[in-house]
Amino acid sequence: MGRAVLCRWCAGCCLGLHMALTAVLAAAQLAWRPDKAVDFTVGTVAGGNSDKITRLAQKILQDRKLVTTPMVVINRTGGNQTLAANFMAQHTGDAHYLILSNPVIFTNELSGRGKVRHTDLTPLALLMIENTVLAVRKESPIRNMADLAARVKADVESVSFALPTRGGQPHLSAAMALRAAGADPRRMKAVLFKGSGESIAAVLGGHVDVMVSSSGSVLQLVQSGQMRVLAVAAAQRMGGVFANAPTFKEQGLNTVGIAAWRGFHGPKGLTAAQLAFWDDALAKVTDSPEWKKHLEDGDLTQSFMKSREFARYLEGEYAATKAMLADVGMLN
């Protein structure tokens, strides 16, 4: 009798121990965190706005020990950011690879410049939405969008535009403005530069007329009076340094351009556990004092979205971008 009771007691303990171990193993399988070096890809040159954003995120992740393995930022430039996208597409299922993404991920696909589709990568987080601005050097005879509209309507090729990419979000925003001004956007005189530093040098030197870029790229130059903003490609005015810069619509042009969002993507095929890790880590990055100061200094609004919400947001942006490209004759 005693032996039978003892056996039943031992069997119950073994079953309980087995269930506990199973739960621990299941939790271990569900949890994920980087166990090797994390590779941050930037498709533009070092020192540019995208590069600075990525390096700030890297620093916060490491300083706060949100990622305890080494992290490196690599500028994989070329092909209108297609080389960077191609590199990411080679690492399916590996969440140790991230890329700083922007609307070029759409425009390259839709204009036929890149083979990697936006669905070949995994949205991880929306970091911010920057406004695009059109700016000139202080000595420029182009004082506002009315001056610019008059010149391009008379001869669209009489004005040159410094751009980071052909068919990208800045190019598309400027093309929409030209179309609204009555000029043919397909004949825009686009001068491409590898980074904002080169564009700035060309505009300040009088070699190119108008710089089209994120507001952050020209903030200090506008603040110092070296450059003047003609217009902001947005639905409403910005504040701070750009408070006096009117929108396209305020100047009679029926367009707002396209949102200059910045986010992180990973390769295709990531697991729920991998997405959960980056959801949490990147949320903590954007909640840090360092990140908030970066937004405040650039007159930017916090626009963080986790992976699932970011994916839904991108569906709408993709459709809007496709319609705009078709509207200005740039859709492949």
Task: Please describe the topology of this protein.
Layout: H1 2-30, E1 38-42, H2 49-63, E2 71-75, H3 82-89, E3 97-101, H4 104-110, E4 121-130, E5 132-137, H5 145-154, E6 160-163, H6 169-180, E7 189-192, H7 196-204, E8 210-214, H8 215-224, E9 227-233, E10 260-267, H9 272-286, H10 289-297, E11 301-305, H11 307-327
Parallel strand pairs: 1-2, 1-3, 6-7, 6-8
Antiparallel strand pairs: 3-10, 4-10, 4-11, 5-8, 5-9
Question: Which features characterize this protein?
Answer:
about 325 residues; alpha/beta; about 20% strand; disordered N terminus
Q: Could you characterize the architecture of this molecule?
A:
By secondary structure, the chain is of the alpha/beta class. Helix content is 44%, strand content 19%. The strands form two sheets. The protein has a six-stranded mixed sheet with strand order 2-1-3-10-4-11. Strands 7-6-8-5-9 form a five-stranded mixed sheet, with helices on both faces. The model is unreliable at 1-7 and 21-29 (pLDDT under 50).
